[in-house]
Specification:
Number of strands: 12
EC number: 1.17.1.8
Subunit structure: Homotetramer.
CATH topology of the largest domain: Rossmann fold
Strand order of the largest sheet: 3-2-1-4-5-6-12
Catalytic activity: (S)-2,3,4,5-tetrahydrodipicolinate + NADP(+) + H2O = (2S,4S)-4-hydroxy-2,3,4,5-tetrahydrodipicolinate + NADPH + H(+); (S)-2,3,4,5-tetrahydrodipicolinate + NAD(+) + H2O = (2S,4S)-4-hydroxy-2,3,4,5-tetrahydrodipicolinate + NADH + H(+)
GO molecular function, one term: 4-hydroxy-tetrahydrodipicolinate reductase
Distance between the termini: 27 Å
Shape: elongated
Strand content: 15-25%
InterPro entries: DapB_C (IPR022663), DapB_N (IPR000846), DapB_N_CS (IPR022664), DHDPR_bac (IPR023940), NAD(P)-bd_dom_sf (IPR036291)
CATH class of the largest domain: Alpha Beta
Bound molecules: NADPH dihydro-nicotinamide-adenine-dinucleotide phosphate, the ligand O=C(O)C1=N[C@H](C(=O)O)C[C@H](O)C1
Largest sheet: 7 strands, parallel
Order of helices and strands: EHEHEHEHEHEHEHHEEEEHEH
């Protein structure tokens, strides 16, 4: 399948380029980057620093290159990801989107677009994190009503959004298990205040150094607590997951898919 990489110089985009370029089932046909970058027009392999020419070039105009691809892999910014969605809709292409930080309105538009083209959206493309979602569902169904639930996430100091997309998905899983709406029970930024409300989910975001990704969900009871934690030591698990997601999405019917569909988890 022919792959277009959005943001190939990014942390995720460069790893995805390296991994996709080694897969026998994938051919990278182009990259798309912001206007004015000095690597526009370069071979994507050289632009990313693989040291190997891939015979595919970086453009600053997605509409001029989109016809070459089957699937776009996009881990960039909310603004650019929305442009990618619209371009993919116009050209009838599939999109794997791993960008986080979308507004509710933007999510609604992605849902609308996915009625016409295949879209896989995942705030976290690690298969292990998606397994963790199942563990959280079980924990929330079993002890969620009798615990104080806190989500603590840590990322590198350059991350733009907070809380992380993953912690919002985790909260969503827990809220659904409790038959609640996340917006009714999520409490952000309670640090230093002694007003913990029963039945709420507390959110805590830490940003420091080059922490790749760490999520802990604590179910606090009296006399004991359960913590379920995932640590990523680098971003490779997410990039591997992005390529698996693209392979899954190739030739699929229009629809909104998740990593659960890739893994066959219900
Ligand atoms: N779903 C998941 O599993 C994961 C999701 N993420 C999410 O992915 C997103 C990207 O993260 P990360 O790689 O760390 O971020 P980076 O800042 O490292 O990369 C963002 C990339 O987007 C490019 N970009 C920005 N604007 C445009 C534009 N207008 N046109 C084309 N390209 C553009 C940048 O180009 P340039 O380099 O030239 O500035 C850069 O290459 C974030 O939302 C993050 O939260 C991250 C990890 C895992
Ligand atoms: O920006 C990151 O690094 C990550 N972002 C995603 C998120 O917001 O949850 C996924 C992962 O935690 C890495």
């Amino acid at each position: 399948m022919n792959i277009l990489i959005a943001g190939p110089r990014g942390k995720m985009g460069s790893l995805i380029t390296r991994i996709a370029s080694k897969r026998a089932d994938m051919k990278i046909v182009a990259g798309v980057a912001p206007k004015g970058r000095n690597y526009i027009g370069q071979d994507i392999g050289m632009a990313v620093g693989t040291g190997e020419r891939l015979n595919a070039f970086v453009s600053d105009d997605i509409n001029s290159i989109i016809d070459q691809c089957d699937v776009i892999i996009d881990y960039t910014t909310t603004e650019f990801s929305m442009e990618v969605m619209e371009a993919a809709l116009k050209a009838n292409k599939a999109v794997v989107c791993g960008t986080t930080g979308f507004s509710e309105e933007q999510f609604c538009r992605i849902e609308e677009v996915s009625k016409h083209i295949p879209v896989l959206y995942a705030a976290n493309t690690s298969r292990v994190v998606n397994l963790m979602y199942k563990l959280l569902e079980l924990a929330a169904k079993t002890i969620g009503n009798v615990s104080d639930i806190e989500i603590i996430e840590m990322h590198d100091k350059h991350k733009k959004d907070a809380p992380s997309g993953t912690s919002l998905e985790m909260g969503q899983v827990i809220a659904e298990a409790l038959d609640q709406e996340l917006k009714d029970i999520a409490v952000f930024g309670r640090e230093g205040r002694g007003d913990r409300v029963s039945g709420s989910i507390g959110y805590h975001s830490l940003r420091a150094g080059d922490i790749s990704s760490s999520h802990t969900v604590m179910f606090g009871l009296m006399g004991e607590r359960l913590e379920i934690t995932h640590h990523a030591y680098n971003w490779e698990c997410f990039a591997q997951g992005a390529c698996e997601a693209a392979a899954f999405l190739y030739c699929k019917e229009p629809g909104l898919y998740t990593v659960k569909d890739v893994l066959g988890i219900k």
